Amino acid sequence: MPRCLATIALLGAGLCAASFCPDAAAQPAQAQDTAALPAQPAQSAPQPGQSQDTSAAEVPPATAEAPTIELITMGAGDLLWEKYGHAALCVRYRDPRRDRCYNYGTTDFSDPVTLVWEFLRGQSKFWVSVTTPARMVHFYRDRLDRSLWVQRLPLAPEVARETAAFLANNALDENKYYKYHHYDDNCSTRVRDIIDRAVGGALSAATEPYPYTLREITRRGMAEYTFLVLLSDFPLGRRADRYPSTYEAMHLPFVLRAEVEHRLGIPPKQMYQRTGRSFNVTDPPSRWWLFLFALACALPALLTRLSPRLSSRAERLGLALSVLPGGVMGATMWFMAIISTLPEIRYNEVLLVLLPFDLALPFLSPRRRVGYARGRVVMLVVLLLLSAVGVLRQPIWALGMLALLPCLIAALPGATPAPSADDDRKR
Fold first, then answer.
1. Global pTM?
2. Within 10 Å of residue 418's Cβ, how many Cβ atoms?
3. Tens of pLDDT along 164-190?
């Protein structure tokens, strides 16, 4: 059971962040699906690890025709990794057969366990893949039913040629791979940086703070997934509670689209409006649900503690059931902090709140159990007070109840339980 809980927690925690395309922020799976588009007569369907079009890797000469560069952004989709949107750049010529779209959200999703492990280690390998505008639009519009917007960038001919050459060079096998990061380096930030260079830093001038923290951004995008939203407070550390600049917030494709309109004066033209249901991406569930879960977890310890008819073995069993969720989560968070290279996971105040040592509480002698529990209560109360006055940034009050309530029950005087058979033998 603990191993199962730890596995679910590890995968869920990794997917909480790895789902960003904004990502993701790069919305990873979308790019892979884009690569899986049905082949057109002149092209074969590409595989995840291959270039989608060999001609797309040819860098155009400096004297070539000046193309048009377009930003394409996609709205939310049905799947978890589609909730934050997606972005791509398309290069268009007078001859549509030369048109290409560049997608920086491509990876291999066939092994999610390996994907989460590499994500935690900061080794997630993503790459830029290439397809045609027609195939990309077909995939997102006809297969995924996701809204599409296009913005034609106001670039001088020589800048447009340089941008097209950069994209083509970036798609070469020796250049196309990069290490993905859900906030700092994803499908949207790669596109953002290319546009920013082309427009002389107009986007990077957006240094004002964004109105939501990274944690709030993450929770809002997953608002439909109550379990994952509540789970996200565990692995996301102190860094997630800072306000990014608007430029940094362009790891979200919809923010990138809005800022291109605001700073470059290019209103988005909607190519397609989703016909399916709308999504909740603004109203995540309250942390009071996590608090209620902590209360439910504490019930076995409370009921067995207050019942004089139950043996000490039953009391220990009730306490074990109550400390199990917090202890397993604590062990999982400590494991993730040790193996991960990501600062938002490694520097985590939850590590002070949930300790794997709490799992030993039911196995201590009564005197040591009470002493340990009282020490933990003092520690947790101090941590909650530090959180209340702003010394600690993270919202630990609800998840802290997973540890505080069982320890509080174990620390308080209660009815003397009937001796168990083990106790009689010890006498």
1. 0.83
2. 15
3. 999 999 999 999 999 999 999 999 999
